C-alpha cells in the first residue's frame, strides 16, 4: 500500500514539508510505501469549468502539470495534502489541484472513492481550523475515509522549520499517520 503526500506550499522545504515528512516517516515505519510531491515547482492552473472531462473521462484538457500529479494521486492507496494558511485559507495552487482533481474524478471513475486520506495544515498564527475544514471538504465529497487524531492535524510555525518546535502539533501529525496506516490496513483487509 502506498501513501502520497502533496505539499501545497510554495516553499520547497517550509513548515508544510516538515509536517508531511513526519507523517511519511511514521507511515514508512508502519510498513507502507510513501511518496512526497511538492507543488512548489509545478504549473497547475485553476479549473476552467470547460467540462471536457465529462467527455474525455479521467482526463483534464488543460496542458500543464496537472495530469501527472492526478495520475500519481489515483495510483496511491492513501492521500495526504498539506497546506500553509494563506490569508485564512489553503494555498491557491493546492486548491487549483483539488478543484480539478475533483472534477476529473467525479466526471470519470472517481479514483478516490473509499480510499483513506487527510489534510494537514500549518499557520503562523490563525486560520488553521477554517483551512483544515476547507481541505476536508475535498476528502468527504470524493467519498474518502478520513482518520482522526488526538486533535485536529494542525501545527504552528512561521519561519521554515520552526514547526518542529510545536511538539503538540508534531505529535498530533504522528498519531494521525499511525491512524491512517491502521485505517488503510483495515480497508485493504
Helix content: 40-55%
Number of strands: 5
Low-confidence stretches: none
The count of domains is 1
Spatial order of strands in the largest sheet:
2-1-3-4-5
CATH class: Alpha Beta
Distance N terminus to C terminus? 11 Å
**Oligomeric state of this protein:** single chain
What is the overall pLDDT average? 97
Order of H and E elements: EHEHEHEHEH
CATH-defined topology: Rossmann fold
Number of continuous helical runs? 5
Q: Please name the fourth-level CATH homologous superfamily.
A: Flavodoxin domain
Strand content: 15-25%
- Biggest sheet character: 5 strands, parallel
What CATH architecture do you see?
3-Layer(aba) Sandwich
**SSE class:** alpha/beta
Set down the secondary structure blueprint.
Blueprint: E1 2-7, H1 15-29, E2 33-38, H2 66-75, E3 78-84, H3 92-107, E4 116-123, H4 128-141, E5 154-156, H5 167-188
Parallel strand pairs: 1-2, 1-3, 3-4, 4-5
Helix pairs in contact: 1-5
Explain this structure:
By secondary structure, the chain is an alpha/beta fold. It has one domain (2-188): Rossmann fold (3-Layer(aba) Sandwich), CATH 3.40.50. The protein has helices at residues 15-29, 66-75, 92-107, 128-141, 167-188, and strands at residues 2-7, 33-38, 78-84, 116-123, 154-156. The protein has a 5-stranded parallel β-sheet with strand order 2-1-3-4-5, with helices on both faces. Strand 3, helix 3 (92-107) and strand 4 form a beta-alpha-beta unit. Helix 1 crosses helix 5. It is globular.
Offer a quick outline of the entry.
The protein has about 190 residues and is an alpha/beta fold.
Amino acid at each position: 500500500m502506498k501513501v502520497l503526500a502533496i505539499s501545497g506550499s510554495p516553499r520547497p522545504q517550509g513548515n508544510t514539508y516538515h509536517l508531511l515528512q513526519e507523517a511519511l516517516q511514521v507511515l514508512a515505519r508502519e510498513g507502507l510505501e510513501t511518496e512526497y510531491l511538492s507543488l512548489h515547482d509545478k504549473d497547475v492552473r485553476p479549473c476552467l469549468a470547460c467540462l471536457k472531462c465529462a467527455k474525455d473521462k479521467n482526463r483534464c484538457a488543460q496542458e500543464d502539470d496537472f495530469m501527472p500529479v492526478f495520475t500519481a494521486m489515483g495510483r496511491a492507496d492513501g492521500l495526504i495534502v498539506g497546506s500553509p494558511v494563506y490569508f485564512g485559507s489553503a494555498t491557491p495552487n493546492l486548491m487549483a489541484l483539488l478543484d480539478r482533481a475533483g472534477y476529473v474524478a467525479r466526471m470519470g471513475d472517481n479514483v478516490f472513492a473509499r480510499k483513506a486520506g487527510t489534510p494537514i495544515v500549518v499557520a503562523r498564527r490563525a486560520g488553521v481550523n477554517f483551512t483544515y475544514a476547507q481541505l476536508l471538504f475535498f476528502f468527504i465529497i470524493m467519498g474518502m475515509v478520513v482518520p482522526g487524531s488526538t486533535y485536529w492535524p494542525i501545527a504552528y510555525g512561521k519561519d521554515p522549520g520552526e514547526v518542529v518546535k510545536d511538539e503538540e502539533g508534531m505529535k498530533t501529525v504522528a498519531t494521525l499517520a499511525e491512524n491512517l496506516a491502521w485505517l488503510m490496513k483495515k480497508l485493504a483487509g
